[in-house]
Design a protein that fits this description.
This protein folds into two domains: 2-19 and 226-419, Enolpyruvate transferase domain (UDP-n-acetylglucosamine1-carboxyvinyl-transferase, Chain, Alpha-beta prism), CATH 3.65.10.10; 21-218, Enolpyruvate transferase domain (UDP-n-acetylglucosamine1-carboxyvinyl-transferase, Chain). It contains twelve helices and 23 strands. The protein has helices spanning 21-33, 47-58, 90-100, 121-129, 163-173, 191-198, 229-241, 260-268, 311-319, 340-350, 381-391, 413-419; strands at 2-5, 12-16, 37-41, 62-66, 69-73, 84-85, 106-110, 133-137, 141-147, 155-157, 180-183, 202-206, 209-213, 222-224, 246-253, 271-276, 284-290, 298-299, 323-327, 354-358, 361-366, 374-376, 398-401. The strands form six sheets. A four-stranded mixed sheet has the order 2-15-17-16. The structure holds shikimate-3-phosphate.
Length: 420
């Protein structure tokens, strides 16, 4: 599918974005580990999350929709009869591998063309050190076969700041009645830790260490998933880019490990107001943003985990800032749903941006008057949406090719964009 878009006028609007993808995956997975029935409201029903749901069903879980809520019945696990398919979702594959490593049966997990090219050795290595048994294509890619085993605790320093790797090890460690320690040199999103604590899990943080065991039984809980900050980011960027615009986004997750993008925008000169609305296991609230003149930004390695999914948008914002912006230490982007350094640079350049690819990031000189062109999502949902926002400030018509992938995380994105 192709999406045609032209320049938008300044606007004043208010909207809600769909539920958080990271939290939705975790609500299903952690709910499946608890005793009794867990209830999840406002689950994101996008392709990635439905892939997790289907896998859990094949592993013996009963997960049904009752009215607006999903009910998870966490009774036992069974060997799947067929290959499990994580489709496009790295979170699904890596978190589920953590659980499969300790379940007493054989399973095989695969994914789509994009996921089969993304590294799984980053979870296979620590899980193997714990005693897990894996057979992977070229020792690192899906399909991966797993034979569940009795695991031993681990003390492991994450070589890359990754919430997926951290969560995979935590999920394996929950099957061991002794303490495992995960050392995180740079903090990544901590939804797994927060949700486990809320469920009565034996998990705590001491500085950069996460200490976890399977000593405590997990209690089933009611989760109401907040709006996805990473989805909100597209509309936050749109109002920051159009001077004279103002936008309120209601009920968004405001977990500080996710909202680095707001700090970046403030540094670039955007006006942002946050109103927090009561905190349970995750902070949430409303975000108001006004567009204004933008200044350039410099991001270094330590800034990257807090904005990991928003970097293509930061590159777009930088094309409109007066001066040189630099993004460094971001090579992780090369192993996302697409090589996001390349797909961002190639497409924005086609639209007239002065943007240079670096092995670990990019250099952007602004401001550049963007011009409509034919650009490609490369099957990557966040690239498709970033390019649609770019098309909303470009002169003439932009055609974004391959937009069906937005269903991975943000099924009603184009309706919201049209209505704004
Ligand atoms: C996610 C973690 C991040 C992020 C991805 C979702 C998660 O990936 O980019 O969109 O839900 O844990 P990494 O852990 O690979 O950085």
């Amino acid at each position: 599918m192709n999406y045609h878009i032209t320049r938008k006028e300044p606007f004043a609007s208010s909207l809600r974005v769909p539920a958080d993808k990271s939290i939705s995956h975790r609500a299903l997975i952690l709910g499946s580990l608890a005793e009794g029935e867990s209830r999840v409201e406002n689950l994101l029903e996008s392709r990635d999350v439905l892939a997790t749901l289907e896998i859990l069903k094949k592993l013996g879980k009963t997960i049904e929709k009752e009215g607006e809520a999903w009910i998870i019945k966490g009774r036992g696990w069974k060997e799947p009869e067929d290959v499990l398919n994580a489709e496009n979702s790295g979170t699904t594959a890596r978190l589920i591998l953590g659980i499969l490593s300790r379940l007493p049966f054989f399973s095989v997990i695969t994914g789509d063309n994009s996921l089969r090219r993304r590294p799984m050795d980053r979870v296979i290595q620590p899980l193997t050190l714990m005693g897990g048994k894996f057979w992977a294509r070229q020792d690192k890619y899906l399909p991966v076969a797993v034979k569940g085993n009795r695991l031993s605790p681990i003390s492991y320093t994450l070589p890359i700041p990754s919430a997926q790797v951290k969560s995979s090890i935590i999920l394996a460690a929950l099957g061991i009645p002794k303490y495992s320690t995960i050392i995180e040199p740079l903090p990544s999103r901590d939804h797994t830790e927060r949700m486990l604590k809320y469920m009565g899990g034996d998990i705590r943080r001491e500085g950069s260490k996460i200490i976890v065991s399977g000593k405590a039984k997990l209690r089933s809980r009611y989760f109401c998933v907040p709006g996805d900050f990473s989805s909100a980011a597209f509309f936050i960027a749109l109002s920051a880019l159009i001077e004279g615009s103002s936008l309120t986004i209601k009920d968004v997750g405001l977990n500080p490990t996710r909202t680095g993008f707001l700090k970046v925008l403030e540094k670039m000169g955007a006006k942002i107001k946050i109103s927090r609305k009561g905190e349970t296991w995750e902070p949430r609230g409303d975000i108001e943003i006004e567009g204004s003149k933008l200044s350039p930004i410099a991001l270094q390695r330590e800034d990257i985990p807090g904005v990991i999914d928003e970097i293509p948008l930061i590159a777009l914002l930088a094309t409109q800032a007066e001066g040189e912006s630099r993004i460094e230490g971001a090579e992780e982007l090369r192993v996302k749903e697409s090589d996001r350094i390349k797909t961002t640079v190639d497409n924005l350049r086609l639209m007239g941006a002065d943007i240079q690819e670096r092995p670990d990031g990019m250099i952007i000189k602004g401001p550049a008057a963007l011009k409509g062109n034919r650009v490609k999502s490369n099957g990557d949902h966040r690239i498709a949406m970033m390019l649609s926002i770019a098309g909303s400030i470009a002169e003439g018509e932009t055609i974004v090719e391959g937009t069906e992938c937005v269903n991975i995380s943000f099924p009603n994105f184009f309706n919201l964009l049209k209505d704004i």
